[in-house]
Amino acid sequence: MPQVIARFVALRLLVSVPVVLGILFVTFMLIRIGKQDPVAMLAGPLADASTYQMIRSELELDRPLLEQFAVYVKRLAHGDLGRSWQGGSPVLNEIVTHFPITLELVVLAVGLAALIGIPVGIRAATRPNGWFDQLSRFGAVTAFSIPTYWMGLMAILIFFYLLRWAPPPMGRLNLEVVAPPVITGSLLLDSLLAGNWAALRSYAAQLVLPVACFTLVAAAPTIKQTRAIAIEVLGSDYIRFARASGFSRATIRRMALRNSLAPILTFLGTELTSLLAAASLIEFIFSWGGLGQLGLNAILQGDFAVVQGYVLVLALFSVVVFLAVDLAVLLLEPRSHRRA
Amino acid sequence: MSAVTALAWPVGVARRSPTFAVGAALVGFFLMLAVLADLIAPYGPTQAFPYEVLKAPGAKFLLGSDGNGMDILSRVIHGTRYAFGIAVPAGAIMVLLGVPLGVLAGYKGGVLDEVLLRILDVLRAFPSIILALAVVAATGASLVNVVLVIGFLDSPIFARIVRAEVLALRHATFVRAAVAAGNPPWRVMAVHILPNAILGATAQLPMRMAWAVRISATLAFIGVGIQAPAPEWGAMIRQGAEFVISGEWWVATFPGLALMALVLGFNLLGDGLTDILDPRRKATGK
Amino acid sequence: MSLLTVEDLHVHFVTRGLDNRVRVARALNGVSFEIEEGEVLGVVGETGAGKSLTALALLGMLRPPAVVAAGRIRFEGRELAALDSGAPDHIRGTRLTLIPQSPHTSLDPLSRIGEQLVRMQREHGRVSRADALRRARGMLDEVHIPAPEQRLKAWPHQLSGGMAQRVLIAMALINRPRLVIADEPTTGLDVTVQAAVLDTLRELVRAHAMSALIITHDLGIVAHYCDRVAVMFAGSIIEQGPTRAVFRGQRHPYTRALVASTPKRIAERGYGQVGGTPPDLYALPAGCLYRDRCAMAAEICVTTPPVVRFEHAHAARCHFSAQLPPP
Known about the structure:
Shape of chain B: globular
Order of helices and strands of chain B: HHHHHHHHHHHH
Mean pLDDT of chain A: 83
Distance between the termini of chain A: 9 Å
Low-confidence stretches of chain B: 281-286
CATH architecture of chain B: Orthogonal Bundle
Structural class of chain B: mainly alpha
Number of strands of chain A: 0
Mean pLDDT of chain B: 81
Number of helices of chain A: 14
Low-confidence stretches of chain A: none
Number of domains of chain B: 1
Oligomer: heterotrimer
Largest interface: A-B, 53 and 45 residues
Radius of gyration of chain A: 24 Å
CATH superfamily of chain B: MetI-like
Structural class of chain A: mainly alpha
Strand content of chain A: under 5%
Number of strands of chain B: 0
Strand content of chain B: under 5%
């Protein structure tokens, strides 16, 4: 069995390399052939032609495109992701410090969305077109139709401005609170570990709005997909046979749940990856300071290296998540054992 | 058909799928606004009243005025033209590109199919919103660019749906009969497969259009898509964002409500269509 | 008293079309038959005749928009509900069981065979796992599955079609039912495998003095395995009786057309035909349901044909049953 797993992982990683490289390539080319001119931004309006050229060659933007890409990939293999043009810090450092921030947000949101969405979806599927089903579907579609950033703005308006329940949206911690030392990267865990209750409280308060908005966005597709999966499982031949054979409702429910597990897991993987990118909007509104905000700003300002680093993280993250999910499915489903 | 029987149809459809009915009503409403914008809007979309900046909703400005002294109601109404002006052409591109691609890939298979699947793989790993962002940032923010980017980006997804339908249809008896009767491949694809494959994909179209409206507003909000003073809803929310903390809530709220309502309308329309088309398809089946 | 009595069963499907008008599909129209102890009844008919629907009604699996418009089902003297009540009644699954149509998809893909056989028993009574497992192994033996010990640990996808069908027979018979319903038990199986599976089924049915209802569209199966046969058309039984009597007499034009379209007959006498299209359940003709396709249709067929009885509990519904020349 372990060799099966090892082989699966190895094969998947091998196949992923060209995909990731492809994504990097497309990003690389897109931002370089576009209208943004980072050289002009860095040089400033008063620079003369020679300064312009000097900056350009320093940023290596005067070399042929393919050569630039080849150099980038080579450096990448050595762990060098380049430097940010807004301050010069290495991109790798920026990623390492900012990624856990976003990850924490996304994991919390997906976790909550699953906790809420899966039971709702399943309940809706047991009585299709019943009132619960119609209501939950309508609710899900409505939540899905709300623009994320607008929802954030409205949340701030209502809960901060009008009701004064939420703290001002100025980042993860209030200014007067001292942050705990970074151990895991998760502020929740780090505050807990350090016994820094002030930070924990402040952070938890700040978390409420962004997580709530994010969860709402994530819950909608969760409900819809879970419902679809559950309906298909409930309509399958083996469930029909179980009913015809007079199995108890509890047994049938258990059968259905077990058979729905693999597709639901696969779906959650997709959710996780797409939400990582959607997080950038939430971070933007709430000044969260995570990787998403970093990446978004980098795209707007033409900080190429950071953009590439951001895209690389997104791509790698999805590779890892899909790998983990597919591995879990492989272990769960006896049918796949045959192929392996 | 008498008036009574003619009325029976909307009632029957609404009964069959209230989601469809609500969605159609919403979309229809906004469409009407778009068409009659010049007649309905009290002021012009960029008509500025410099001395009446940031006025709360009241008699003169029903939904308030924004930071430039422009009437929000009029801008929201005119914004429908931007929304449809993006959704409809983008949708057309998706269909014109995606459907033939899907049919070819599903029917012919081979290299084309493989390439399409690889592209879909890449898209799956690469959230389209970031890609859209990068592309529009690269090519500049204009209506045409936004439409093209969205249309191109969503066509592979459309193609995948159509491809799945085609794969199922390929083995249908009537298709095999057509092939056996000696029809050339292009004819089988065009006459036999295409009409049936489209049916399932049709339900997806409104959802894709909802996505188009959404993502163009998102791009505008970030500052990459269409910008002020154009009355695009995303751009309006962008402007309104700075006023939320200081309490001038109306600048961001109303465009957002309109955006939400139209996107909701499209989504409900699509959901309802799936409801209506699906069980009937299962009944007629192969 | 018969083991199973179905009395004048009418099942309709009531829906609303897009034009908001109520549409009624009359799927079962006065189905009546009986099954005695130890008897094997075959139900034949074209697709859409109502065979599987009758089975669903017997198993209490009908759901809205299905509506029981009339009729009763009595099993072992007790009345059964055709509509799904949601709660198990411990008759279905124990005394009245089903061998479903597609063997592979009817097995839980995530449970081993042994586990499923055990579950089948424990759902309906207190049996220890050890006993249940032992019975499972014995049952696999009875259905002639080689190496039953290993098979208990197998996953459904590891079985061949014929083997899966045997497993399903085992599952249906493990609680020693009085009546087992086999819904198209040979679809998708090779011809040789078909015969073997049916032989096993017959052997077990006889060994345990069970009754069986075999739903099929294959007249050959009826001829070989069924004591009696009921021919269905448009939701009603147009002829039923002892197999040999029905095949010899063919007292209904539809029965004749069916028999004439079997390969053997075609080889002997050339192509006959069962003309026309399947009846539209939303718009069935008044009187004889077969008259739109019948070569012998006459004015009198606008009225409901009477049940004409022949010897040995052989009956047919046709105005001209008695006058039909021998086939």
